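Q: I have 73 residues here and want to know how they pack in 3D. Can you give me a structure?
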Amino acid sequence: VSPDIVFQDLEPGDAILMCSDGLSGMITDEDIATLMQGVSKDTLPAVATKLIEQAKENGGKDNVTVIVGVMEA
């Protein structure tokens, strides 16, 4: 197994999404970006739930793992 490792400078308010292929394989990048648009600390649970629901609605052929976060000041 060879993990993907990415270093990225983040600013306050930037959103982070880590997910399994059960999500990325079932939803387009554009749809993920749309759902992540404007995410905040208060909306994280709702956004994560919506991402999972959308993957299931699109066929849900694999387990779906989603971790979302927002950088704070």
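Q: Anything worth noting?
A: Residues 35 and 47 are 7 Å apart (CA to CA). The mean pLDDT is 93.
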